[in-house]
Amino acid sequence: MSWADVKKLDINAKHPKRSQFPVTRVALLSEMVEECLRLDVLFIIDIKCYDIRAVSAVLALYEKFPKMYEMALISSFNPQVVYERQGPSQRRFDNPLRHLGASLCDVLLRPLYMTVLPYLLGLSVLLLEKDSITQRAVARARELELRMVAWTVNEPVEKEFLVHHLGVPYLTDALADDRILAKGQ
To answer: Which residues form the GP-PDE domain (predicted)?
Structure first.
């Protein structure tokens, strides 16, 4: 869709309580950043695919809003996004052989995720798939002074276990039980 078409959408159109909300338009990323900073809200920008334009746009936001260094977290499944955090460079994946080599390196580097890589990449937070979080991983992250966040946790029992037994916050698509969980604290 073009931005002109996206701007016309009402993101509350299918919300179950849409009658309680005014028409709400899709915000530009820069508008969302400004609002989060204005409200003093911590936020995550999750870059879903590697595109140098996305990386450059986010880096430009950090230049425009230095407070983002305190308030924002960048996440991505693609390690290239993390590698590009200091600024755009040549893409690793243009050539199929280079792509294969880079992918192999990512597999070989996996054992280093909880050892050397946090220091080399300047990581402060690890976003891990919920089923890969163990007590040992949580302890190791704390030793490295890394915060750990689980994704995507939608079941109440999983939320309870992560928060109350492992001390790990989570990302969720289901907020309904969170009020019940909060009352139990």
So the answer is: 1-185
